[in-house]
Write a structure and sequence with these properties.
By secondary structure, this protein is an alpha/beta fold. The chain contains eight helices and seven strands, in the order βαβαβαβαβαβαααβ. It has a seven-stranded parallel sheet, sandwiched between helices. Helix 4 runs parallel beside helix 5.
Length: 263
């Protein structure tokens, strides 16, 4: 499905970005992985290569314009093209605090960071892809991009902003043959953030997860493999007519499902 496609992934580590990279590698893609710390990206690349795939790791700060562009130029020299770019770099967001009790800095800082990294990586890839006449840029958001969610701090505005940015970039790059698509997830229990929360949060986190599952139409949350599979499809030629939109992989999350308790 992705045979020999050249895909750049930012924030590669043993969590969602790693799952996406491994799934794409299994589909035949050549992965160029980066992280602002080299070791996590190297670990994922090593697993892919040991399994018979192709992956290279590099140290790239996804908030550094020069580092991003240097990495893309280096990749282009080896591959002569870039078929897809996916920014999965993490950033700190203060949550579990009411907005009326949150400081301005804690609210604004992650929004600024998120938009900076997405703008830098997506536009850098977009300039290259525009010259090629093809390419796919993926972004990732979560449930707060589609519905109101309490105690998520700046994460809600981040999701909405990234989704709008993705849509607008798609409108600009579409005439040049480049697709831009966002994936909205409900969060994966097998991802590192959830595992860490379960390890330290105890019964309280278990109740939060029960509530999240209850909010979905199928009473479950998507796994990392579900998100990775969606990303692989969107990068493939089978999705050549999909752009300028958000693909919802939240398993139909909507808080309205909780208005009845006898179902």
């Amino acid at each position: 499905m992705l045979k020999d496609k050249v895909i750049v992934i930012y924030g590669a580590s043993q969590s969602l970005a790693g799952a996406v990279a491994k799934t794409m590698a299994q589909a035949g893609a050549k992965l160029f992985l980066s992280n602002r710390h080299l070791t996590p990206a190297e670990e994922v690349a090593r697993e892919i290569n040991e399994a018979g795939g192709f992956a290279e790791a590099a140290e790239v700060d996804a908030l550094d314009k020069g580092a991003i562009e240097k990495h893309l130029v280096k990749t282009l020299k080896k591959t002569k093209r870039i078929d897809a770019s996916f920014n999965l770099a993490g950033f700190e967001v203060l949550q579990d605090v009411d907005l009326i009790d949150m400081s301005l800095d804690d609210f604004v800082r992650p929004i600024t960071t998120a938009m900076q990294t997405h703008s830098l990586t997506a536009t850098a890839a977009g300039r290259i892809m525009a010259k090629q006449g093809y390419g796919v840029i993926l972004t990732l958001t979560a449930t707060p991009g589609g519905i109101g969610y309490p105690k998520v701090g700046g994460f809600g505005p981040i999701c909405s902003a990234v989704e709008t940015f993705s849509k607008n970039l798609a409108a600009e790059l579409g005439p040049l043959g480049v697709r831009v698509v966002n994936i909205r997830s409900a969060g994966s229990l097998d991802s590192r953030p959830f595992k860490e929360a379960l390890a330290f949060g105890g019964d309280r986190i278990i109740e939060v997860i029960k509530k999240m599952k209850s909010d979905t139409m199928l009473k479950e949350l998507p796994s990392m493999h579900d998100i990775a599979s969606a990303a692989s499809f969107l990068v493939s030629d089978m999705a050549k007519s999909i752009t300028g939109t958000t693909i919802d992989v939240t398993i139909g999350t909507t808080t309205a499902l909780n208005y009845k308790t006898d179902i």
